[in-house]
Amino acid sequence: MVPEPLHDIAHLGSVELFTPRPERSLWYFRDLLGMTIVHAAGTSVYLRGYGDHAASTLKLTEAGAPGVGCVAWRATSPAALERRAAAIEAAGLGVGWSNGDFGRGRSYRFRDPDGHLMEIYYEEQRYEAPAGQRSSLKNQPQKYEGRGVGVRRSDHLALLASDVPANRRFATDLLGFQLREQVVFEHGKTEIGSWMSPTAIHHQLAYVLDVKGGHGRLHHFSLWVDNREDVLRAADILSENGIFIEAGPAKHNNSQGFYLYSYEPGGNRIEIYSGSYLVLAPDWQPVIWNEAERGTGTYWGGALPDSFIQYATPDIENGERPTKTPKLPVFF
Amino acid sequence: MVPEPLHDIAHLGSVELFTPRPERSLWYFRDLLGMTIVHAAGTSVYLRGYGDHAASTLKLTEAGAPGVGCVAWRATSPAALERRAAAIEAAGLGVGWSNGDFGRGRSYRFRDPDGHLMEIYYEEQRYEAPAGQRSSLKNQPQKYEGRGVGVRRSDHLALLASDVPANRRFATDLLGFQLREQVVFEHGKTEIGSWMSPTAIHHQLAYVLDVKGGHGRLHHFSLWVDNREDVLRAADILSENGIFIEAGPAKHNNSQGFYLYSYEPGGNRIEIYSGSYLVLAPDWQPVIWNEAERGTGTYWGGALPDSFIQYATPDIENGERPTKTPKLPVFF
Amino acid sequence: MVPEPLHDIAHLGSVELFTPRPERSLWYFRDLLGMTIVHAAGTSVYLRGYGDHAASTLKLTEAGAPGVGCVAWRATSPAALERRAAAIEAAGLGVGWSNGDFGRGRSYRFRDPDGHLMEIYYEEQRYEAPAGQRSSLKNQPQKYEGRGVGVRRSDHLALLASDVPANRRFATDLLGFQLREQVVFEHGKTEIGSWMSPTAIHHQLAYVLDVKGGHGRLHHFSLWVDNREDVLRAADILSENGIFIEAGPAKHNNSQGFYLYSYEPGGNRIEIYSGSYLVLAPDWQPVIWNEAERGTGTYWGGALPDSFIQYATPDIENGERPTKTPKLPVFF
Amino acid sequence: MVPEPLHDIAHLGSVELFTPRPERSLWYFRDLLGMTIVHAAGTSVYLRGYGDHAASTLKLTEAGAPGVGCVAWRATSPAALERRAAAIEAAGLGVGWSNGDFGRGRSYRFRDPDGHLMEIYYEEQRYEAPAGQRSSLKNQPQKYEGRGVGVRRSDHLALLASDVPANRRFATDLLGFQLREQVVFEHGKTEIGSWMSPTAIHHQLAYVLDVKGGHGRLHHFSLWVDNREDVLRAADILSENGIFIEAGPAKHNNSQGFYLYSYEPGGNRIEIYSGSYLVLAPDWQPVIWNEAERGTGTYWGGALPDSFIQYATPDIENGERPTKTPKLPVFF
């Protein structure tokens, strides 16, 4: 008997990032990545990509250390919001109702098993561009300004978790996400990571093993551009502006994403992303990679460096992040 | 009170095209577009793009004239299939159950109000590549061979209809598709076209006014490539092989699709397509274009020619299709 | 007996454009195309692309009407400069020596047979970027800022001429340019255009028939970007900023250039350009196109419009230039 | 007193590669890279890219070990050929006149100081495509077939030399190449590599230090594609066909080339290449990189691996070449 899929979560709504260097972080997201500031309140600034449907998809909040704040998911209907709130509360993970963040109606807050703060909401203000920001395309919420990278929209985020299976089950069972890919080592015994999504987008949430045993940490937040060439251009722009590129441009084997990882000045790992593939099948069978198949995580292009495993935000060990590629004795 | 969205249709499954020149049509889809033949039965050949999840997404059937055969939609569950079959039958549009086409379980057949044959199915064989066709990417169903254009997957189709509103209501109300964009002329009185989708893909079905008053006709079938550069390369390949390009490469205003339209040798209009944008909002408000806003249908690049309105398959008037761009007195 | 090719001209040095709207022209070149202002003197402003070797390749001068001022060519050596000056003077086309424009040594000025003002110089200041404009690439003269289109360098210009053969002979015989392609109508009797170059770049100078019988007019000035995708992105940027696109993005048949033509606000036609091909053969045989082969001048993409022949700067007839694509009755 | 530049060499004509696995090497160049076989004689096969002007630019010769055979340069005129032959003979490097290889007139053969065999010729058959291979573009020597990578033309080669300065002086003084970039270590004392060209192409010949003290060895031969996206597509094609990618797709700092290095099955390192920049200045000042500036040789993208220094053809030490990326303990 094939169960009916749950369709209560519509998509990733927004991600809050903490930054100890708010001015420099803003420079990174606005001037280099080309996002737009739409609102400010308290120590938070709200940003968006030119193609984001909602008013804001990134909330940047001043804090003592980098990391992830609240991750917001949009429900598919008011009833779906109520259903999810009830199920999460019954599972003992609930925090409670809040009045809703900028541009949104009330939300139900909770924590995933690893402790990351999340919320679900339904009501959302669609972005209405002010005069100078209107696009000449009626179906584009905002003018494409041609400033910096010009990221189009938010795509996904990856969280670290000390217990990946528990968090993966939470996402599939309580949120209804479809499991897309997994990395499982030691003959199926050690689940290293799971990639999941409530939409046709390959993944909007990944849980990956926290090798340092931390809790509530962020691996990366990812922003979309339409073409692989846009990712290459982003590498030129980051390089010209002194931003250390941790990895890429290169192609992942799992997800097939064409990636470019850098750290925004506050310390959070940000991905500029294109490619990958859509999943539409209701009976999708997760693709599972073992040690040999997974290899370096790269299909082609430079292998992911050790920092890709060791560094996350907040950094719980040394407070240092890599700032340049180790120099090898390569001279031509 | 916000209604809950219907999630009974998962995605476009496959499209059957009729061709009076099966050998030449096969050459176009296999050698120029880079699709793979997976099966043959009777006068039909089944093809796929390297990234299609199912065994086949295009069925090419020999016939006296070009046009569209059966359009198949996949249900999200067995129960969803039953629900849709019951609703369509109750609406008086049902044809009845069939045993299912290649690689599929039983399907419920019906006709849309304009008379196009359609079906819904749930059970589907996932594509398993034979030895020589396996990809080095575990999550890619088939090797990317680098032959011709290399279309990745089917994307959408556009059908003509003499009564666009009736067919649009059928798709939204009975199939549960979300209405994404519309072209409406004469102060809201004349609905020229409606673009709809059961997925995050911008549209998987469009109904556009049949200006010749025909029924059951095809405007175009569209295949996806990942980057705009792939569409440009496709223009080079089609041009080198004597295929008349009707329009593009250029960018639509509605859908923002980056398009290239040509006729396969059987006479059907085929689009090679990238760009566009995903829609995830459960309360998406359709973008409606009037005469002035719609203009030539092109955001930039050459305007769509008159044949784009006048020609469809089967051609009910003159049996002729354009084979070259009208020569203007332009000489440098 | 094969003659030895002449190598006295090294490359196109710079182009001066007249504009009746200097503020708006500056906005176009600086904010939309991403060029940098390096100098101002009198009513002129000097600009450059981030990859231009010399300090400036575009001089923008306020004037009553648009058009082309002085076209400067760099000699390969001081002796080559003297040789060309003597030969041009002997041909009766000389104007005389000048002290040299911004960043350059003395130059020899002359007029081509059609009356366009030109000069040859040898000494040239290499661009040295100020602190904030230095690239992180030691071999790149200036930072790639990621502002607007980001044109890399000047590429070529096309001039109108009432007598194409006379001007073509001038360029090949007196300047030593290699003839690359020609459009010749009426069984070889009417030379419509000739494309020539002193470098491996396909053409740096074209003469095309002035159908209105004018003299000294400009057809277009062309700026280079590295990839076809950059031209597509340029189309997005121009469209978002209300700049009328006259033609493209599309691919020329002659030159194979991937083009995008727009008018800068002063009225001059500007091309954003990539693709084409290099010519290295010392015995290159010109490719000659007749009426049938030339067709619309477009290999694929929208045909060149009538204005592409009728409009040039200064406009000697109606003072009007097209501002929008004629609306065809195309509605989907 | 500025000397007049020497213009006796027009461009790189062709490169001969030795392969111990001729069948597999042919598969690589023809089926994966998309080159065309135009001729065969003895144990040699002659190939070309679709945009190469001459009949052949790559000669593949069966041999016991991989490596480079004769490197041919085209003179700018018959007189230039005589001048270069006389100068090289006077320098004691001459081998003597030969009757010329396929499609060419007589050539003067010689060895560079490191011992690589070279020749200069002037007469050359322009490629005339047979019926099925004609392009729909009159200015393109051959149809773009859309098979595999589709390299357009040969670009450059890099040779190892035990004494880089001696070989660099040979190329600049005797062949007249312009010095474009250098890597010089130890405060100017150790010349690691020099990049030179007789054309506007950034470099057509590089000499790089042979760290194993060999002679006459090849570092890599490079083939051009028009867009960076074509290099990415090439990485997909090589990966799908089990070809080990040694480095890239990534961007060099020196030359700015966007590169992809793999080994053809015979063992020679082949680069698929785009980007870089043209040099037109007659007084170009070489860009010189020291240890710190040179770093890993990569501007962005994965660093060049150790094999990039250690491995060349013929391999004089271990007869082994890398076949896979070292596995790092990176697991997500």
Give a description of the structure:
4 copies of one chain form a homotetramer. Chain A is α+β, with helices and mostly antiparallel strands. Helix content of chain A is 17%, strand content 35%. The first copy, chain A, has 6 helices and 18 strands. In chain A, the strands form 2 sheets. Chain A has a 10-stranded mixed β-sheet. The longest helix of chain A is centred in the N-terminal third of the chain and has 13 residues. Chain A is globular and about 55 Å long. Chains in contact: A-B, A-C, A-D, B-C, B-D, C-D. The interface between B and C is large, with 42 and 42 residues.
Shape of chain A: globular
Q: What's the main sheet of chain A like?
A: 10 strands, mixed
Q: Would you identify the regions of chain A where 5 or more consecutive residues have pLDDT less than 50?
A: 325-332
For the largest interface in this structure, which chains are involved and how many residues does each contribute?
A: A-B, 52 and 52 residues
Topology, please?
The structure is a homotetramer of 332-residue chains.
Chain A: E1 9-19, H1 22-32, E2 36-41, E3 44-48, E4 58-62, E5 67-75, H2 78-90, E6 94-98, E7 107-111, E8 117-121, E9 153-161, H3 164-174, E10 178-185, E11 190-197, E12 205-209, E13 218-224, H4 228-240, E14 245-252, E15 257-263, E16 269-275, E17 287-289, H5 291-294, E18 298-300, H6 307-310
Parallel strand pairs in A: 1-4, 5-8, 9-12, 10-17, 13-16
Antiparallel strand pairs in A: 1-5, 2-3, 3-4, 6-7, 7-8, 9-13, 10-11, 11-12, 14-15, 14-18, 15-16
